[in-house]
Amino acid sequence: MKKVLIIGGGPAGCAIAHQISMIGNYNITVVEKSNVLGGGCKTLTMGGHPYTFGPRHFITDKKYLFDFLNKYVPMRSCAEHEFKAYIEQDDEFYNFPIHEDDIKRMPDYNEISEQRKNSKGPAGAKNLGEYWLNSVGDILYEKFIKNYNEKMWMVDSVNEIDTFNWSPKGPSIATGKGKVFSDKISAYPIKLNGYDDYFPIATKDVKVLLSTEINEYDIENKTVNLNDQKMKFDIIVNTLPPDIIFNFKLGKLPFIGRDFYPFVLPIENAFPKDVYFIYYPGKGKVTRCVEYKKLTKYKSKNTLIGLEVPSLSNRLYPLPIKKYQDLADDYFKLMPEGVYSAGRAGVYRYGIDFDRCIDHGMIIAKDIKEGGGGHGSVLNIDPTGEQKRIAK
Ligand SMILES: Cc1cc2nc3c(=O)[nH]c(=O)nc-3n(C[C@H](O)[C@H](O)[C@H](O)COP(=O)(O)OP(=O)(O)OC[C@H]3O[C@@H](n4cnc5c(N)ncnc54)[C@H](O)[C@@H]3O)c2cc1C
Predict the structure, then answer these.
(1) 26 in a domain, yes or no?
(2) Can you say whether residue 351 is alpha, beta or left, with left for phi > 0 and alpha for psi between -120 and 50 degrees?
(3) 279 with 259, same domain?
(4) Of 183, 218, 269, 320, which has the most beta carbons under 10 Å away?
(5) Is the domain of 359 the same as that of 278?
(6) How much distance in Å is there from the Cα of 316 to the middle of ligand 1?
(7) Which ligand 1 atom is nearest residue 38's CA?
(8) For residue 302, what are the CA distances in angstroms to 45, 266, 270, 295, 307?
(9) pTM of whole model > 0.90?
C-alpha cells in the first residue's frame, strides 16, 4: 500500500485526506501541530457563543464544492449579508466594497464625481495604489483604499503591492442591490459547532497524529523525521508555507498574521439586521469587526464580536507582492514528483478559501488516481486551468 503524508490538519489537509482516502488503497497519515483538526475553521466558544478566528463563511462560485460540503455539514444561505465600512472622514457607514448608491449621499459627492470623470482608469497601473487611484480618484482612494491596504498588508505604501488577478482589487465600484458576493453561493453551517463535524468524517480512514510536528524535512527524497524516526513516503502533500518544509533554504516567505480579540456585549444585536461585518479603512488598528451570531444564528441576550488586527504573530495572509510569489514558485520547483503543495499557505495565494481547499483535494486525488506526475503548487496541475488563471 502506498504511503501518503499530509502536513497540516486544517480544512485543506482534512479535505485532501478525505479525497485521497476515497480513492482507496492508500495508507494516509495527517500530521497536525495543534491538538485539534480544522485549523482556522475550527469552531471556538466563549461563554457558549460559537465563533471562529476571523469569519469563515463558505463562499463559492462553484456549486459542486458547496454540494460536496453540504452533504456532510448542512449549510444555510447567508446571501442576505451586508458588509459595511466606517468612513471617518464622513462619520458614516457605507457599503464595502464602495457602492455607487453611497457615493451619491457623500458630502463631497460633486468633487468625487469630478475626479471620477477625469480619472485615467486602471489600465496600465503599475501597482495597487495606482490601480485604485486611477479608478476612483483621490477622495474615494483616501476614504476606502489607502489606509486599509497599508494596514492590512503592513506596508508603508500601498504602491508596494502589485496588481495580480488575485490581488485585493475587487470591483472598482459596486452597483445593484448592495449585497456582497451576489454572484456566489454564500453559506454557513446550520449546526452551532460549524464545520467541526466534517473534520473527523474526512479523516475517518486516516491515521491522524495530533500535537505532532515533523522534526526534520528532506522533501527532495520524500523523507521526514517524524517522532524521531526517519520515514519515507510515496506521496507528500504540504499545506504549510512551503519555506518550512525546505528548512527556509531559499529564504523566508513573508506572511501577514492577525491578532484576534473576541468579546461579548450586553445587547442582543450590535449591528443592524443584515450587517455581518464592519471594515475599518481609517487609521485605527482594526481592519474588520464581525458579529458572529449573524453567521451562527446563536440565540442569546448577549452578542459576541470579534476584532481583527493585523500583526506578525502568525503566518496567515500570503502577500500580494510579485517578488514573494516568485520565491514561492522557486520552492515549488524544488518539489519532486508526488510532492504537492495546497491550501492557502501551501500555494502562497491570498484568496484560497475553504471551497478551494476542497477543490485542491479533488485535483490532487484525480492526479494521483491517473498515475500522478504532478508536483509543486496544486494550481499548476488544475486540469481546467481555472485555478491557475485566477491565481496569476
Ligand atoms: C482571518 C481569516 C479569515 C478568513 N475567513 C474566511 C472565510 O470567511 N471563508 C473562507 O472560506 N475562508 C476564510 N479564510 C481563509 C481560510 O484560511 C481558509 O478557509 C482555510 O482555513 C484554509 O485552510 P488551510 O488548511 O489551508 O489552512 P489553516 O486553516 O491555516 O490550517 C493549517 C493547519 O496546519 C497546522 N499546522 C501549522 N503548522 C504546522 C506544523 N509545523 N506541523 C503540522 N501542522 C501545522 C495548523 O495548526 C492548522 O491546523 C480566512 C482566513 C483568515 C486568516
Answers:
(1) yes
(2) left
(3) yes
(4) 320
(5) no
(6) 7
(7) 49
(8) 14, 5, 9, 15, 16
(9) yes
Substitution site in 18, 19, 56 for ligand 1 pocket (most atoms within 8 Å of beta carbon): 56
Residue 155 lies in a domain: yes
What range does the domain containing 49 cover? 44-81+179-191+255-318
Task: Quickly count: other Cβ atoms within 10 Å of residue 321's Cβ.
Answer: 19
Ligand 1 atom closest to Cα of 52?
3
Is the domain of 55 the same as that of 130?
no
Tell whether 126 and 260 lie within a shared domain.
no
| Cα separation, 341 vs 363, whole angstroms | 12
Ligand 1 centre and the CA of 39: distance in Å?
A: 5
- Whether 241 maps to a domain, the answer reads yes
C-alpha–C-alpha distance, residues 15 and 21, integer Å: 10
In a shared domain, residues 313 and 335: no
Q: Is residue 168 part of a domain?
A: no
Ordered per-residue pLDDT tens for the chain, 392 residues: 999 999 999 999 999 999 999 999 999 999 999 999 999 999 999 999 999 999 999 999 999 999 999 999 999 999 889 999 999 999 999 998 899 999 999 999 999 999 999 998 888 899 999 999 998 999 999 999 999 999 999 999 999 998 865 555 555 677 766 556 667 899 999 999 999 999 999 999 999 999 999 999 999 999 999 999 999 999 999 999 999 999 999 999 999 999 999 999 999 999 999 999 999 999 899 999 999 999 999 999 999 999 999 999 999 999 999 999 999 999 999 999 999 999 999 999 988 999 999 999 999 999 999 987 899 999 998 877 666 555 44
Site residues for ligand 1, CB cut-off 6 Å: 7-13, 31-34, 39-41, 54-59, 213, 239-240, 258, 308, 316, 343-345, 353-354, 357
